[in-house]
Every structure is written in C-alpha cells, then in structure tokens.
Amino acid sequence: MGRRVVKFLAWLPLVVGLLLVSGPARAEVWQAPVGGKAVGLPEGRVACPGTTGDWTIEQDGHAVRPPAADDAIGHAVDAKLAPGAGACATAASTLTLVATGHAPAVDSTATTLFVDEGRVEVKGRGLRGATVRWRLGDREGEDHCAQPQSDPGGERCALAVARGLPADPNVPDLHLMAAGSRDGVDVVTFDAAGRRMGGDETLLRPARIVLSSIFPPDVSIDLAGGTASRIQLVHPEAVSGADCGAASCDVSGNAIVVGGLSSVAGTLPVRLHLAPHVVLRKGDAFDASPVVQVPILPCAMAIASGDALRGVDGSRAVVRVDARCAGEARSLRWFTAGRSIDVISAVDSGGATYVLLAVGHVESDELVVTAGRADGSIVGQARAHTRALPSPNTTLTLDSGDPIDFVPTNRPATVHWVQAQGTGQLLLLPLEGAYEVMTRDGAMMVQGQRGSGGFVALRFAWRVPSLPGSFATTDLGVVVDPVQRPMHEASVAVGLTGKEPLVDLLCGAGPDEQRILPTVPAHVPYEERDACRLVFHRERLAPADGAQRLQLDVEVTRVDGESRPESHVSQPIVLRAGGQPRMVYLKGVLGRFDHVTVRVSSLADVGIDAAHEEPSAQFSMIFGTSHFRLYVTGAIPTGLYRVSDPAHSGILTLNFGAVMRATWLDSAGHEGFLGLEAGMLAEGLANDVSSSGHSLTQVATVTGVGLSVPIANRSLATETSINLHAWLEYEVSRDVGNEGGNPVGFVFGPSISIGNIGANL
User: Is 420 exposed, middle or buried (0-12, 13-18, 19+ CB in 10 A)?
Assistant: First the structure.
C-alpha cells in the first residue's frame, strides 16, 4: 500500500502539468452548404435526436444532412453527440453545425487585386453573400458581396481588403468563402458532395495585381553627395529589375541603386521590370514595363532644424543649402505640398547657407520642401519627419515649493514643464497684456500683469539652439498649453509672530502698556479689561504677500471654567499692505479672573512653509492680579460638636450663621481650600436640652480655621461648598443672660455654605 502511495505522488506533478498544458477542449464547428449530401460523423459518435435543429439525422445517427432551404444559410445549431443513443443523457459532447451557401465559382483569369487602393475585384457565379477574408501580419478582416453586378458570362463584385497587401499573387492570404460560412482553426468545411475541403481550396489567387505607384511621392536623385544614389521602392517585391540607360541601376533590397551619373540632367528615365501578373496603373491604362522619370537634383539640401512640428499653426523650418548652391539660395523659389512658401531670412555659416522658411500648418507625417529656379527647374529637395509635440504639462510653484493652479499677479511663480525629446527645446514666451516672463537662477518664472484677470494659457516657443547665428533663438513654432489658468493675486501667508509680528496684542496705555506674548498666559489687571486690543500691522506687509485672509476667534470663560457664549467672537479679517496698523478692541470680559483666549489663523492660498500648517497665533489672558480674597458666606453647619463644660457639651443638631473667610488665590483666581474664618452662629436650634438637662441653644461668635471644597459656581457669588470647621466659640447669649457654665468652648464639624460675597486683595 505504501509503495502505491509513493508511486502516485511521484506521477502526480506530471499529471497536473499535462492537464494544465492541455487546457479545456475547444468546441468544433462543421459547416456544409444547404441542399448538400449528408456528412458522416466521427467513428463511435451518433447524433442525439432532437438536438440537430433543421439538420436531418441519417444512417441511424451516424450522419447528418444540412437543410435544403436557403433561409437556413448562416444559421448554427449546437448538436449533441454521444457514443450511442442510450448515452445521450449522460455522455454527450457538442458539435456546432453551420449551414452555408454554395461555394462561388470564380473566374481565376478575371480576378484583380488593387493593393494600393485596398480592394479586390472578383468575377464568376454564385457571388451573392460570398465573403472575402484577408490577413496582413497581426491584422485581419473580411467583406461581403451583398449585391453583385451582372457581367457578360457571370457576375462581378468588388470587395474591400487591407491596403498594402504584398504585390505577389502567391503571398496574399486571401480566401473567398461561401455565404454564411465561418473561419477559424476549429472550423471544418464540407462541399456539396459531403467531402471535407482543404484550406487551400478557398484561396483566392489574383490573375493581375495593380499598383498605383512604384516610388514614393516627390522622389528624386540628389547628386550633391556624388554620382551614386538610392531610389526607394514602395513595393520592392513587385520589381524584378530596372534599366536606366547610360547609368547603372540595380535592385537591392527595397531600393534601386543608381550609379554612373557623369553629368547633370533634369531627369533620369527608369524603366522598371515588374514581376509576373503585376502592372502599374496610369489613368485607365495598365503598363507591365513602365518608364518613370525621376528628377535629378544638383543641390544638396537638408532640413537643419530637425523634425518639423505637426499640427502647429505658423510653423517654420530651417533648410541648409550646401556650398554648391549656397550662392543662389536666397533667390530660389520654395514649395511644399504643392504651395509656395516664403523665405523669412537667411544666414551664411561654414560655407553653407541656412534659409528660414515659413512652412505654415503641416498635417502629414513628412515635410518635403522643394527648391526651384525662376525658370521652373527643380534644383533640390529636403525631407524631414514631422512630430506632434507633447503637451507641456506645466505646473506652477511659488518660492516655498507649493504648487498653485493660477498665474499670480503680485509675485512671480516658477514654471515647470515636460522637456521634449530631440534637438529642439520649448521656451516660455511672454504674452503682452497678460503676463511677463523672467529668469532667476536658471528657472523660468511667470507673473501676471497687475490688474489682469480672467483666464490665460501659457505659450511656448520651439527653438533649436544648435542652429547658427540668430536662428538659434528664432521661434520655429508656438505651442499653447491646453490648460487655461485664472489670473489673480496670490495670497501668501506671512508669519504672524516673531521679531516683527503681523499681529500684536496690547493691554493698557502709556508707560503701563503691556504686550501679551503668544502661548504665554498673561495676567492683566481687571481694570484694564477695556483697554486690550489686537494690532494688525499692515505696514509690515509687502505687496507681493497679497491679501492676508485671517480668522479671528475669541473665547471667554468664567473663573469656574464655564464659557460665556455672549462674549464669543468668530470674525474673518482681510489685510492688505497699508501705511497704518489696524486695531480691534476686545470685549466680553464681565467678571474678575475671566480667561480670554484669542486665536488668529491664516487662510491664505499658500503657507510660508509647505511642510507645516498655516501660520497661527494664540494669546491667553486672565483678567485679575489679586492674591488673597476676603468674603462672607452663609453657613449651615450640621452635626457640630461642642466641647465646653460638661453641662453644655454635645451635638448641635441645627445651626445657622454668617462666616467671613480669608484665603489665598491661585493664578486662575480660585480660592484656596484652607482659610481663616470668623463669624456669628445661632447654634443648637433643634436642641432643647443636653444630656445633663441644660439647654444647648445659644448665639455665639466663632473664630478658627476651615477646609472648604466648592461643589458649584466656584468663586462666584452663588458658590456652594461643603466645609469642615474647627472653631473657638464664645457664647454671647450665655454671657449676656448670666447663665451658668463656661461661655467659651471648642466647636468642630461639617457645614454647607452658600454664597461668596467679598473682595480680592
């Protein structure tokens, strides 16, 4: 048993790999023409009844016959196949059956392929609905003959194919298929006799291949580099040879190499020998051995400014004319795309002449510039690829490095853009009436003109620094950033604190004026509560700082920590550079030791430091400078215990009186818990007699110490506290009434006090 497990584990990776490589089985497609004979199914398979649609099952399920009606063309049905009729419910596989039209009968001698025009003309019978399928590299497509034209001896139909198919009747991958047929590696096609057809039987082989051109447009021979030149071929596979008369012409690769040109003539006649079945179209005529006149250009020219700009209005190009024709470069006439172009200026450098041409708007993939003399003769030609410049994708930043999405009008912003690849470069251009351009430390900067508004798109010039003379700084084209940006003032947050703060908080006047420092709690005499003001130093702002949008928030809390909502202030403030400071007086201080918090924060477009939050300042003041408090409170002692002579000692159940208390104050104006106390009480109001039979009810004065803990309205007139007292007592009522016993005693116990009326010292 163990050995079997080991063997199974050893074979398991191989089995899994085979399953992964094989993948899922593909569904097979069979197609046959309507009215055709029955098609035999694979050995060991029968068609399941009721699954073949309009296809007829024959030979006990071992064959199927396509439908006879033409309206079934193109219809498909998924038939079920099984090893036997009894297995249809459990072991059935699927076979797609497609009914097609009859294969068209093509006249192979009348099929013409127009490779440059992208069409094929077919003549024959049964072309209605026929489909031509083509493949070119990784591209493929098809076209249908919906309505063929009548032609003597049959029908004619023109179908679209890809442009640029090879001009070789044995190479193009063209197939002419019956109407309604499908294409693919899993498709099996049968003819009307039920015979399986091969893939080559549907190939369409043109009897004639028609070319519209042999050479590229504006082809020429440039003799400036010597007596040999190359002429590029559009369809090199279609040219088997060439004859150039006195000169030598050899077909090499995709070009004709011309040599032996000993003298300069206007043109060179080139007789081409085309491959079999290939002709050149000249109007309505076809030529199998055409003669093409190729201009010979004596002047060597090249576009020195590199790739031309495509899709740019008013573009320019610089053409270099070599020494052989440099003397007449300024008098030549210049053309491109069949239109004349103007010469703007010319510069001589290194024996050659550089001509600046206004080529205008170019849309093609190649710029061809032709030069000619006044007599109409062509002397030179220059070519260059065209390029569509990428969008500059500009971003703007201020000195802090923070990006902005507008053009500031009060300070410059650094402009960043994508540098184009190639010999040229983009350079930011000023726009009169909108913005100015400046350079600082090698960076290009932009600043909108004061008073400007609206939206603006930045403009860039295309220049080639390697050009000679003044052409190195000549704008060869203007590219406009597709993004339009608004223009307005930049609000750059300045520091609110420091040696010369933007915001000061002052209290008092004259020699007693007090400057409140940020973040440091300050004590201000209560009497100066109406003399505190915020000073905003507009005179310290520069115009480049822009409008400073600030938010002022003032919170006032009572000495017990409760907020005074009626004193809350939340106010936006806008500051601009000015000659005089602006002052805002603080209000809302209603009680001693009120705590005032003043916050000023910046709401500018950009902070002074991109790595930190917006500038802000916070001031904290307590309006009170006293250190002691003397106040009177109403006390209700409960459960006092008197220690005196034995006859008058005991618990004093109910007491009432007024107590004066002296204690210290902390920095927030809160009384200390321990204080000196003195007062007068009515004691023992609920006591009739003591345990010895003597009355405990007396009026007495007390003095001593007390421990007080506020439980509500701390330090306010309505303060409520719980207390613990230790007093010396003198019973005034006992002394006045000449009652027996000692009037002096010691009293201690708790109480509840209400009220806090007094003065701070």
Answer: middle
pLDDT averaged over every residue in the chain: 85
- The answer to whether the beta carbons of residues 168 and 9 sit under 8 Å apart is no
Can you read off the two tokens belonging to residue 664?
Answer: 């210290």
The closest alpha carbon to 616, from 505, 538, 517, 503, belongs to: 503
Express each pLDDT in 526-544 by its tens digit: 888 889 999 999 998 888 8
Q: Whose CA is closest to 389, among 457, 474, 480, 484?
A: 480
SS3 letters for 249-289? EEEECCEEEEECCCCCCCEEEEEEEECCCEEEEECCEEECC
The Cα 284–Cα 1 span in angstroms is 87
- pLDDT per residue over 254-278, tens digit each? 888 888 775 556 778 889 999 899 9
CB atoms closer than 10 angstroms to residue 149: 11
Q: What is the mean pLDDT of residues 680-695?
A: 67
Model confidence band, residue 596 (pLDDT cutoffs 50, 70, 90): very high
pLDDT at 89: 81
Q: Residue 524: which residues within 8 A CB-CB, separation 6 or more?
A: 507, 508, 514, 516, 532, 621, 622, 623, 625
> Which residue has 């006439």 as its token pair?
333
**Token couple for 177:** 């298929």
Amino acid at 92: A
| Contact (Cβ atoms closer than 8 angstroms) between residue 716 and residue 560 | yes
Q: DSSP string of 175-212? A: EEE-TT---STTEEEB-TTSPBPPGGGGB---SEEEES
CA distance from start to end of the chain: 104
- Structure tokens belonging to residue 63: 């064959």
- CA 120 to each of CA 215, 467, 589: distance values in angstroms, whole numbers, following the listed order: 22, 50, 97
Which of 685, 681, 704, 697 is CA-nearest to residue 753?
681
